[in-house]
Design goal:
Elements: H1 16-20, E1 36-42, E2 48-53, E3 63-67, E4 98-99, E5 105-111, H2 114-122, E6 125-130, H3 137-142, E7 153-161, H4 164-170, E8 173-181, E9 193-198, E10 204-208, H5 213-224, E11 231-235, H6 251-261, E12 265-268, H7 271-277, E13 283-292, E14 298-310, H8 316-327, E15 336-344, H9 358-375, H10 380-387, H11 407-418, H12 420-426, E16 435-446, E17 457-464, E18 470-476, H13 483-495, E19 502-506, H14 524-551, E20 558-561, E21 564-567, E22 574-575, H15 576-587, E23 592-598, E24 605-616, E25 622-632, H16 639-658, E26 689-693, H17 716-728, H18 739-749
Parallel strand pairs: 1-12, 10-11, 14-15, 18-19, 25-26
Antiparallel strand pairs: 1-5, 2-4, 2-6, 3-5, 7-15, 8-13, 9-10, 9-12, 13-14, 16-24, 17-18, 17-23, 20-21, 21-22, 24-25
Helix pairs in contact: 5-6, 8-9, 9-17, 13-14, 14-15, 16-17
């Protein structure tokens, strides 16, 4: 067993002190000489032709410009498309003259102060010629009214493996369920913001808390018709994202204003703007049919998913493909059919949201799994253990291998720690006239990057200075979860040097090397961490080789320890910095390496979550009394950060289960456009989240590591819903399970 010095240790984040003391500077804290402020004017109608009279507003003192559709470049783009080879359908302009949803961008007001901007917005005269709307999937599929063109169907895909129709005919039972998942707001503490300016060399500089800086560079350059090389994007400190800052919503229009006015422009949003005018998790309607034998073997399954893509194409194809992928990598079902479709509606466009397809994929299927187990009188955990994938399993669709799967071990460990069988057997004895108790569990899976679907590679440059300190240039985007610290640990382990000496740069499209995808798809630890490990090992070998040349010794007799290198039996110890000096002086070469790293695999990660709930049958209120999350993520690089990720993911997922929803009425108006109406699970409502990991060595991951950030937000929701259904004897399949939904379900069971 490899003994590790830095990996696997609880390390406090390198940015923790500055953040808790308020010293960290976010975009909103940045100041520039002669800086202007800008705010988007968002449509108040779900579908309408727009006319903007800015004659009065433009005369407000301090207003520099007001832009509408007539002022912008005639260039279409797709805010989701992170590289040109993705070839996503382009249907977005910087500003629109026909609003497609409440929150669509219809004007940009720029002034010397926020006060002036807000005053000018209040004086804009906007005329709406309202058009027919398409709200919800039922209406979208009818095609009586269309958002654009002749059909609301944006994208569809059918994936089949084996002969599921034959297995359905041979099955002892077919278990059918239909359900819905909702639109969800990311609820990052930092609302959307961006700063653009013209640099000293005349280039456009964009400062953004984004997840995909090279995507921002490409979109800004393309819209303005300037060379990519003349656009510099610097990723700033980010106050959370959860996928919400994965698309270029603000940056191109902010870049346009700065470029046109030749002055720094800060484009800001408040919470209402961020809810209405950015992106949401895609809502979905899911139908599941599972064929089983009386012994509990799953022989076939068909899953049909209709997805609300919102007003623009954005991620219409990506969400269908991503959601489908997750359905084939959790259970060993050789005969499956997946049919996924995305539809246009006059609602907030869909975009990345923590888990990207996995929360929707497993939301209904995991309820269906429980129902299948109940049908044959089998314990839901035992039923899963009989059918879950095992180590080395192949993806039945021909995708990348599933890898070192330890999901069965997660279930077994969870059953033991949670005392599953004992609780399930005894818990109904606690029921009263008013309160019902239940336990439930669910499993979930996710991936590690884009291997098998899109190019997934990154470049890294690593250099050792004469003082022994290390600089790592790699285009990562820390979302606030400690990515920099994780990569520090990997670099320190690979080089055998203390973490204090290692500096990791975040993305700067001029200063850091190219990266194919940014921080998305759970690729950072697995892919970027793999690149850092590979570069570190290459650089350490270079150090040893130079030392051997310097000392005329054999590499087999060389020892390294915390930035020191020496020959066995020798008292003379030399620092890495000294070796760097020798190399520069004697060989005219720097102690550095450049590594081009391509993701070698895309294994699955897994989780099993267990929940105990108390349900008030009179009010429909749910209290989660106990929650256990068991994760198969390979080696934990930093267990402390892993625990934090799992706890945060659980809170987001439990919110999905019980209360979070961007509510849109039948006419297309958003009812929950602020935090007084968009309800989230607050600290007093959260149970203690117990976190366990089942560590296995993933051969293609850095030191055996896999991802955890997105996986953590997948299984908690269906685990809680299954617990509620067990408590009440219901079959709730609609998210969120609000008090109204629960009370209504109880009535139906009477």
């Amino acid at each position: 067993m490899e003994r590790l010095k830095y990996v696997g240790k609880n390390v406090i984040r390198e940015d923790a002190y500055n953040k808790v003391t308020g010293r960290t500077r976010y975009v909103c804290d940045m100041k520039r000489h002669n800086m202007l402020y800008a705010k988007l004017v968002l449509s108040q109608k779900p579908h309408a032709e727009i006319e903007v009279d800015k004659s009065e507003a433009i005369n407000v003192e301090g207003i520099e410009a007001i832009y509408t559709y007539e002022d912008i470049p005639d260039v279409l783009y797709n805010s989701h498309e992170w590289y040109k080879g993705a070839k996503e359908y382009e249907d977005e302009y910087l500003l629109c003259n026909v609003a497609r949803f409440v929150g669509d961008r219809i004007a940009l007001v720029v002034g010397t102060s926020k006060k002036a901007v807000e005053k000018a917005i209040s004086k804009l005269s906007i005329t709406y010629k309202e058009l027919d709307t398409v709200i919800g999937l039922e209406q979208a599929k009818q095609n009586v009214v269309t958002v654009k063109g002749t059909t609301n169907l944006a994208f569809s895909k059918r994936i089949v493996c084996g002969d599921y129709e034959k297995k359905f005919k041979e099955a002892d039972f077919i278990i059918k369920d239909t359900g819905k998942t909702q639109k969800i707001h990311h609820a990052a503490l930092e609302t959307h913001i961006c700063l653009s300016e013209i640099g000293e060399d005349g280039s456009l500089v964009v400062w953004s808390p984004c997840q995909t800086a090279f995507q921002v560079q490409r979109h800004a350059a393309s819209v303005l018709n300037i060379p990519f090389s003349r656009v510099r994007v610097i990723k700033t400190v980010m106050g959370g994202s959860f996928g919400g800052k994965g698309e270029t919503v603000l940056e191109p229009i902010c870049a346009f204003a700065a470029y046109r006015l030749n002055r720094p422009v800060m484009l800001y949003m408040n919470r209402k703007d961020t809810i209405l005018g950015t992106r949401s998790r895609n809502a979905a309607e899911i139908s599941v049919e599972t064929a089983i034998k009386s012994d509990g073997t799953i022989t076939g399954r068909k899953v049909t998913v209709d997805i609300d893509g919102g007003a623009y194409y954005t991620n219409s194809s990506a969400i269908v493909m991503s959601l489908g992928k997750k359905l084939f990598r959790l259970y060993d079902i050789k005969n499956q059919c997946y049919e996924g479709s995305t539809y246009f509606t006059n609602t907030i466009p869909g975009g990345a949201c923590r888990g990207y397809g996995s929360p929707q994929a497993h939301a209904i299927t995991e309820i269906n799994i429980d129902n299948a187990a109940n049908k044959i009188g089998m314990d839901p955990c035992e039923f899963r253990l009989k059918n879950l994938v095992t180590e080395g399993a192949k993806d039945p669709t021909g995708g990348p291998d599933i890898g070192n799967a330890k999901i069965k071990e997660c279930v077994i460990k969870g059953m033991e720690v949670f005392k599953w069988k004992d609780k399930r057997r005894k818990i109904k004895k606690r029921d009263t006239d008013r309160y019902a108790y239940g336990v439930g569990m669910a499993c979930g899976s996710h991936g590690n990057g884009y291997k098998g679907a899109h190019p997934d590679f990154t470049d890294v440059y690593m250099h050792i200075f004469s003082d022994g300190s290390v600089l790592v240039k790699i285009s990562i985007h820390d979302q606030g979860c400690g990515t920099v610290t994780t990569l520090q640990q990997i670099a320190s382990e690979a080089l055998d040097v203390s973490m204090e000496k290692v500096r990791i740069l975040e993305t700067d499209t001029i200063a850091t090397p190219y990266d194919s995808a940014g921080t998305q798809a759970s690729r950072v630890t697995f892919v970027c961490g793999g690149a850092v490990k590979s570069a570190g090992e290459k650089l350490k070998k270079k150090i040893v080789d130079v030392f051997c040349k310097f000392k005329s010794c054999d590499a087999a007799n060389v020892v390294t320890s915390n930035g020191i290198i020496y020959e066995k039996g020798s008292c003379e110890k030399i620092t890495y910095g000294d070796i760097a000096v020798f190399l520069e002086k004697e060989c005219s070469e720097s102690m550095s390496v450049f590594e081009r790293y391509q993701s070698p695999a895309n294994p699955a990660v897994f989780a099993a979550c267990f929940a105990e709930v108390k349900v008030d049958k009179y009010t429909g209120q749910v209290e989660v009394l106990e929650f256990l999350a068991v994760h198969d993520i390979g080696k934990s690089i930093n267990p402390l950060l892993v625990e934090g990720q799992v706890q945060g993911g659980a809170q987001m997922s439990l919110g999905m289960a019980l209360m979070e929803e961007i509510e849109i009425d039948k006419k297309g108006y958003v009812k929950s456009d602020n935090f007084s109406k968009y309800h989230m699970l607050n600290s007093p409502q959260m149970p203690e989240v117990k976190v366990l990991t089942v560590e296995g060595n993933e051969p293609y991951g850095p030191y055996g590591a896999k991802s955890v950030g997105e996986l953590s937000a997948v299984a908690p929701a269906p685990a809680v819903i299954n617990a509620i259904n067990f408590a009440l004897g219901t079959n709730i399949t609609t998210y969120p399970a609000t008090p109204e939904v629960i009370v209504d379900s109880i009535k139906k069971c009477m």
